[in-house]
Amino acid sequence: MKITRFVVASSVLLVCAGVASANLVTNGGFESYTTSMATSSGTYSGGNYYVFPGANLGINDWTISATSVDIVESGVGVDVNSGLAALDLVGTPGPGGVEQTLATTAGGTYTVSFWAKGTGGLNNIVNLALGTDVRTVNITGTWAQYSEVFTGVVGSDLLKFYSDPANAGNGNTFIDDIEAVPEPATMTLLALGALAARRRKKA
Ligand SMILES: [Ca+2]
Ligand SMILES: [Ca+2]
Prior knowledge:
203 residues; Jelly Rolls; seven-stranded antiparallel β-sheet; five-stranded antiparallel β-sheet; 2 helices; 12 strands; elongated; binds calcium ion
């Protein structure tokens, strides 16, 4: 009896380890984009920027919403959190946003994290939503990481990030390195599910 329990616990831990690193967001660092699909471009403080309007698919794995967003590349006066590029949620002009559907499990809990840097006023507001659960986060003028926990998601939820709807100028709300990971309880559920599936296979 004890041995059986140990085997089950070990299996759950092993499957958990496999699920633990699962970031559900793809291209969360905005390093993959097609500059030829941008409708305009230029330089901003020594770095290149590319404008992608609503419904444009030039930023891989994301659908663009609202008026436009900019991809900004690091330059003399522009820093990004990682890699060459970051997203500016206030395009040329804003407001703008990006969204992608995540393969979530119904009833699960997910932590969505991101790095952001604002340039004052409405540019210091980042809105995000997972499904119908909407959050507004106030950011600062220094790159910092923020996270929001979403519980009881319905499964296959749309993840959205967008600037303040009133931010219609050429402002800058920089965002980079978005991740969405299942919380431990969700991982245990996923692991138990995988274990049950394995057992059914064996039987
Ligand atoms: Ca990046
Ligand atoms: Ca901008």
